[in-house]
Design brief:
two-stranded parallel ribbon; 6 helices; 135 residues; mainly alpha; elongated
Length: 135
Amino acid sequence: MAASNPAAGASANQPIHPIPRPMSGSETGAKTSTATAFALVFGVAGLISVLTVVLSPVGLLLGIIGIILAVIGMRMTRRPGITGRGLAIGGLVLSALAVLIAIAFAAGATTFLNDQNAVDRLDRRVQELRDQLPH
C-alpha cells in the first residue's frame, strides 16, 4: 500500500533536489564596467573640487573626464554581461553639475573683473585692510 501512495513513496524513492538560490552578480558572470565606476568617482571629485571655488579649474577638468567616462560606460553596459548603467548615470549627472558650476563661477569672475566699479571697490577695500595692519 505504501508504494501506491505517491506522498509516502516520494520521500523514499525520489531524489531530493536543492532549492535554487538567487545568484549574485559575480556568480552570474555579469561585471560592472570600470568606466562607469570611474565616471562616478570623477563626478564626485569634480563636484567637490568645484564647490571649493579655488579648485574650480581642476573640477572643470575632472567633470569633463567624468562625462566622457560616463558616456563610454553607458555604451559598454549595452553589451551582455556588463552592468553599471546606474553608476554611469550618477557619474554623468555629477560630472555635468561640476562642469556647469565651474562655468558659472568662471562667468561670474569674468563679469566681476570686467566691471571697473567692482574692481575699484575691491581695491579700496584691500587698501583699507592694509592700512589697518600694524606696521
